[in-house]
Write a structure and sequence with these properties.
The chain is α/β, with parallel strands linked by helices. The protein folds into two domains: 150 residues, Aspartate Aminotransferase, domain 1, CATH 3.90.1150; 227 residues, Aspartate Aminotransferase, domain 2 (3-Layer(aba) Sandwich). It is built from 15 helices and 13 strands. The chain binds pyridoxal-5'-phosphate (PLP). Pyridoxal-5'-phosphate binds next to helix 5. The site of pyridoxal-5'-phosphate has 13 residues, from helix 5.
Length: 415
Amino acid sequence: MDKSIGQFDFDEIVPRRGTGSVKWDSLPPGSLSSLGTPGNVIPLWVADMDFRAAPAILQAVQQRAAHGVFGYTEVGEAYYYAIIGWFQRRHRWNIQREEIIYTTGVVPAVSAALQALTMHGEKVLIFSPAYNCFFSSIRNSGCEVLESPLRSMGAAPFEVDWADFEAKCADEKTTVFLLCNPHNPTGRVWTADELRRMNDICLRHGVKVVSDEIHCELIMPGHRFQPFAAVSEECRQNSVVLNSPSKSFNIAGLQIANIICAVPEWRRRIDRAVNINEVCDVNPFGPVALMAAYNDSEQWIDSLNAYLWGNYQALQAFFAQHMPQCVVTPLEGTYLVWVNISALLSAAAPAAPATPECSEPTEAFCQRLLTEARVRVNPGTMYGSVTGRGYIRLNIAIQRSLLMEALHRIHAFVS
Ligand SMILES: Cc1ncc(COP(=O)(O)O)c(C=O)c1O
């Protein structure tokens, strides 16, 4: 049952090499000479999935393709009702039609929200480690990144350092807190109490919350996703939520996302930023895929989560048996597993770094893993130059047979 869950076969290998896939077809800069081609590399890095999208999505996109005319596109009323219906049913969040602004992606949405809500030179607070594009988006918006490190307690879930968080909110230059809910890369699914507490602190110091909720459908057993804006009216009135079915339904290449904001003045400014940045025009496939995801793919997402949980359990058991010196962070949500490999670094990367420019031990480890074991993972330092040291991020949204093969290669490499 846990192999191919229900009617969906997540074990089926869908060859992606040669399709222009970033995950399968590209190599990190500098590795071309040593690696030659990406052939035979198992990619556990960039965050997309190796499964076909849900049948309803495939059908909707094929139907739209069969129409044959792909002119400029706007979304219709049915698009908004698909979003409103899904979040009401699935997450008990009542979104009003006028609160929704559509755009081409969540990263463009982060940038638009920051440009609309901050002034040049202000500070944007993030938990660290953080999704790497947060750093660039904040800087590109003319702001400074302020990190509040999450605390790790061995094998326990990461926690907010509340005193540090409040002190950083109190910095007079901090105007926005950019949250990732659930959290990439630590896999935390924030509880309603934690979110309420974050907002209380933000409100005390006049800090607005921008909540990136792109991972919200990827939730492991025992956890529940809580939309930030649905925690309380105070949260709703102090936040902008960014969302998309792209991550969870594996349609990132179709480029569709939504910004949800209950404050009319903020919305007006965000709408303007979306237009100025020219990310207001979507392609014809994005809206139909979104509607098929939210209207007709609930069973698929439940089955996907069950499969991902099986992958996580297999990975956890493998590390416990073969590499017990590594600490696997508990996975509450997302398909990204944050593993502390500090204990391996002195043992596994003793020789000269793989490339002259790769002198940081975590990065050198990942580089050698790629060239020698042909497994590609993300070094933790991508997500925090200090907080990510000694960590790797593993994308487990891959067929279990390939995941196990990758784990065996990692094990062989470190032994
Ligand atoms: C937290 C987070 N936000 C945004 C994105 C990317 O969003 P998009 O492709 O819609 O720009 C990712 C992708 O990994 C992510 O993890």
